Automatic annotation (TrEMBL):
It catalyses: L-aspartate 4-semialdehyde + pyruvate = (2S,4S)-4-hydroxy-2,3,4,5-tetrahydrodipicolinate + H2O + H(+). Its EC number is 4.3.3.7. It holds the Pfam family DHDPS. Keywords: Amino-acid biosynthesis, Cytoplasm, Diaminopimelate biosynthesis, Lyase, Lysine biosynthesis, Schiff base. It comes from the Bacteria. This is 4-hydroxy-tetrahydrodipicolinate synthase. It comes from Ferrimonas pelagia. Gene3D superfamilies: Aldolase class I. The gene is dapA. It is found in: Cytoplasm. The active site is at Y133, K161. Pathway: Amino-acid biosynthesis; L-lysine biosynthesis via DAP pathway; (S)-tetrahydrodipicolinate from L-aspartate: step 3/4. NCBIfam families: dapA. Pyruvate binds at T45, I203.
Length: 292
């Protein structure tokens, strides 16, 4: 169910910083029309850190309603406070999300035993599928493979988004967590190799701007069509670095405006609009990644 080209959806906002729900619904349709296999709503790319809990719930609810069962909706539900993550998880369950994506706690740097206790408590709060999210570059907390393997024994912890970019983890994760455990890349530059190494798909930032092309890449990689996968990866590769010249999601939201996918680019402080030099880098990457 959670496989292939999954978008880490941005949260469109108006100039005054309010959520732009009309544009959000248009983005949902844009992705369905372009073959995206699933949506992560209010993950870190969706500026979850600066949305209030009511806004968080409202955005996921709007995505679930608009999708109307056509593709899976995975709700961001992470926090560095276990009680808050449980509260979000219960709310995401109530509004009909198909699964939850829960990031490792950030800033407080729990031990591996603490991570086991944290994710076990969250999983116990719902029967819905849970996807772990390991992104130590953001959280300063790395889930070891042994920890993931132990958590994989919990019935509704069904997979992981691994954003380490460390391809040496794919085989041990598969061996220790089993064939049914879902392995999703969270690192666009290494996503193709991740899938060719046995991964099941990717939760992607690049997918926001080139969904059809990213879908073609994922389909080829998962089918073992190495030549096509490499060709699509080479086409999209200029975006992999350009979309992270400044903190995500600053470049990708501007790229979406440049492509007229959205009509305006606004952020919540402390994120601000990109510099002119960043815009030029992104513009050149968009041109280089255009389909022939």
């Amino acid at each position: 169910m959670f496989r292939g080209s999954i978008v880490a959806l941005v949260t469109p906002m108006t100039q005054d910083g309010a959520v732009d729900f009309e544009s959000l619904e248009q983005l949902v349709e844009f992705h369905i029309e372009n073959g995206t296999d699933g949506i992560v709503a209010v993950g870190t790319t969706g500026e979850s850190a600066t949305l209030s809990v009511p806004e968080h719930i409202a955005v996921v609810g709007a995505v679930v309603k608009r999708v109307a069962g056509r593709i899976p909706v995975i709700a961001g539900a992470g926090a560095n406070c276990t009680a808050e993550a449980i509260e979000l998880t219960k709310a995401m369950d109530a509004i009909g999300a198909d699964a939850m994506l829960t990031v490792a706690p950030y800033y407080n740097k729990p031990t591996q035993a603490g991570l086991l206790a944290h994710f076990s408590a969250i999983a116990a709060a719902t029967e819905k599928p849970q996807l772990l999210y390991n992104v130590p570059g953001r959280t300063c907390c790395d889930m070891e493979t042994a920890t993931v393997a132990e958590l994989s024994q919990i019935k509704n912890i069904v997979g992981i988004k691994d954003a380490t970019g460390d391809l040496s983890r794919v085989t041990p994760l598969r061996q220790q967590c089993g064939e049914d455990f879902i392995l999703l890349s969270g690192d666009d530059p290494t996503a193709m190799a991740f899938m060719l190494s046995g991964g099941d798909g990717v939760i992607s930032v690049t997918n926001n701007v080139r969904p059809a092309e990213f879908k073609a890449l994922c389909d080829a990689a998962l089918a073992g069509d190495i030549a096509t996968a490499r060709r699509m990866d080479a086409q999209l590769s200029p975006l992999y670095s350009a979309l992270f010249v400044e903190a995500n999601p600053i470049p990708v939201k501007w790229a979406m405006e440049a492509l007229a996918v959205t009509t305006q680019t606004h952020f919540r402080l402390p994120l601000i609009s990109p510099s002119e030099s960043t815009k030029e880098i992104v513009r050149e990457a968009l041109d280089a990644s255009r389909s022939a």
